[in-house]
Amino acid sequence: MTDFNQIGTQVPQQIIEKPMSVTVFGVLNIVFGGIGLLCMPFVMFGFLYADKFVQVEITFADKILSLFGFIVGFGFSIWKLTLGIGLLTLRSWARRGTIGYAYADIVWTLLGVGWNILALYLGWTTPMEGGLTAYIGGTCGVLFSLIYCVLLLIFMQTAKVKQAFSAVGG
After folding, report:
1. DSSP states of 23-42 as a string?
2. What is the pLDDT of residues 84-114, one digit of tens each?
3. How distant, in Å, are the alpha carbons of 62, 126, 147 from that of 122?
């Protein structure tokens, strides 16, 4: 005899509660990644042709090095946007990718700041008159931006976030 109570029934899946930090960082990654994708071409154009608009001398080596940095920044924006979508949909790869992104961005930022300080110290670049204050302020601002990466590292490794992602296989 067939038990009709079991025909067509499914075992209920465990309902996974997505931590608020995952939603917040997913949205922030999408916003920051989107802003990066939208703004990077304008920043690159402005830098590469700045010597045509203002009296500043930009060497060919500066342009090549900056172009490389813009390409990497554009890639980071795509990476961040993709990770944001993955976090919002609770994909197992998104948490690991977000942690990897945070480490990569910290290293990239520190390399950039170190390069700028070295270039200034060795005289490879000279700020415009009165521009040293802006140079120092810009460096401090970039270092301040690392707070986002540190927060990503902290929140993506909490027990609640790990538990939510382990429930979906990550």
Report:
1. HHHHHHHHHHHHHHHHHHHH
2. 999 999 998 999 999 999 999 999 999 989 9
3. 15, 10, 29
Q: At what angle do helices 146-155 and 132-144 cross, to 10 degrees?
A: 10
CA R_g for the chain:
23
Map out the domains of the chain as residue ranges: 20-166
Residue 81 has pLDDT above 50, yes or no: yes
The pTM of this model reads: 0.79
Nearest Cα to 116, choosing from 102, 96, 137? 137
Residues 6 or more apart in contact with residue 78 via CB below 8 angstroms: 33, 37
Name which of 107, 111, 101 is nearest 153 in CA terms. 101
How far apart are alpha carbons 156 and 21 in whole angstroms?
8
Q: Transcribe 41-61 into DSSP letters.
A: HHHHHHHHTHHHHSS----HH
